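Priority: medium. Attachment 1 of 2:
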């Protein structure tokens, strides 16, 4: 079996690494000749919407999937007409546009922050008295790692914020005074079986995920699963889906979802019986899904903009290094490290060491 993946970054790479023991082969399509997954399979270079490349991909692959959600709609339509492609087009359409996504949550009775559509500076000024300060202006499309977002502290920020997003179609949403951020990841197979991972508790720095920690037996697990079940059913979803949530006063409210494997689930490689990457493949191939049970304590720390020395990471007990094979650039995720240990004290100890190391190495 050969799996086609749109995108050849670290997510595609980790999907391939999970697929080799299952006897799977891979073909990647990515504009970059030195994308980090390329060496793990065949690769096609060029624009995602190049009809010749897409035809080649369809020809070579038994099933096609994505590692990112900003696949142009016409590409998904083409793929869906010619081959099996998961997750479904509808999930991408919704996740690509924050305005559509937030309305979709509301239709499913999944609570969100208050939000409004912003197509002009006048719209923004009109929305603010109802939303109140602080608030966040977010471009509707293309944003990730907090890019295309500006915090609004008062009326004086509106004009400059609108300039920062360069007048792009946007939404403005109320700032959520959350006690913590969590995410939940599920896999749903072609025949409709579903498994949920334990919640991840996530810390961000400057809009970029820094640490994700497995929270087995979290009191908010049931509510998170309930929201995610509504999404999976409404989208007739196949593959892995991640839902990002804020906890406020003992309630969860939705931030956004990602129709793909997710950075907050990287700890599942060592910290769960079956990783999110393997379960994504099992789901799209309609194989039995694997157990998502946590194995002891587990957390993941991202390295952003600077590469750690392997020997420094590996000197930390219970640390598992994942270098992506990317050259460091400011703000770019280049590696992550998982800490997993059954003993809570050695787990805490190693995680603290790792967090210190990551702070030293970042953007070095
Ligand atoms: P990702 O890399 O997860 O795709 P993104 O660029 O799509 O990120 P968001 O997830 O919307 O952006 O926001 C990034 C982070 O900014 C959130 O994880 C959260 O820490 C903070 N944030 C976003 N929206 C709000 C909000 N309404 N209230 C408070 N904090 C927020
Ligand atoms: Mg996002
Ligand atoms: Mg996010």
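Attachment 2 of 2:
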């Amino acid at each position: 079996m050969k799996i086609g993946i749109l995108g050849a970054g670290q997510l595609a790479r980790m999907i391939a690494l999970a697929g080799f023991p299952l006897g799977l082969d891979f073909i990647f399509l990515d504009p970059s000749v030195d994308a980090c997954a390329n060496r793990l399979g065949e690769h096609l270079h060029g624009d995602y919407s190049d009809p010749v490349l897409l035809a080649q991909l369809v020809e070579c692959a038994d099933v096609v999937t994505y590692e990112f959600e900003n696949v142009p709609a016409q590409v998904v339509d083409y793929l869906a007409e010619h081959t099996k492609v998961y997750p479904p087009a509808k999930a991408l359409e919704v996740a690509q546009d924050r305005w559509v996504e937030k309305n979709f949550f509301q239709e499913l009775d999944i609570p969100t922050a208050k939000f409004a559509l912003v197509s002009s500076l006048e719209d923004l000024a009109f929305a603010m008295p109802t939303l109140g300060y602080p608030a966040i202006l977010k471009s509707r499309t293309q944003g990730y790692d907090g890019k295309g977002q500006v915090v609004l502290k008062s009326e004086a920020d509106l004009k400059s914020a609108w300039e920062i997003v360069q007048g792009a179609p946007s939404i403005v949403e109320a700032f959520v005074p959350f006690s913590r951020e969590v995410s939940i990841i599920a896999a749903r197979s072609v025949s409709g079986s579903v498994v949920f991972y334990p919640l991840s508790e996530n810390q961000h720095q400057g809009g970029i995920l820094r640490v994700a920690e497995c929270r087995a037996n979290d009191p908010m697990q049931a509510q998170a699963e309930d929201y995610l079940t509504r999404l999976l059913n409404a989208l007739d979803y196949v593959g892995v889906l991640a839902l990002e949530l804020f906890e406020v006063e003992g309630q969860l409210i939705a931030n956004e979802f990602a129709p793909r494997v997710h950075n907050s689930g990287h700890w599942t490689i060592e910290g769960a019986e079956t990783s999110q990457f393997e379960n994504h493949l099992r789901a799209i191939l309609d194989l039995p899904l694997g157990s998502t049970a946590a194995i002891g304590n587990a957390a993941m720390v991202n390295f952003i903009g600077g590469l750690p020395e392997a020997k420094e990471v590996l000197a930390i007990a219970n640390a598992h290094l994942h270098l992506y094979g990317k050259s460091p650039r400011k703000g770019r995720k280049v590696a992550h490290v998982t800490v997993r240990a059954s003993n809570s004290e050695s787990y805490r100890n190693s995680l603290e060491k790792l967090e210190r190391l990551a702070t030293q190495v970042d953007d070095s």
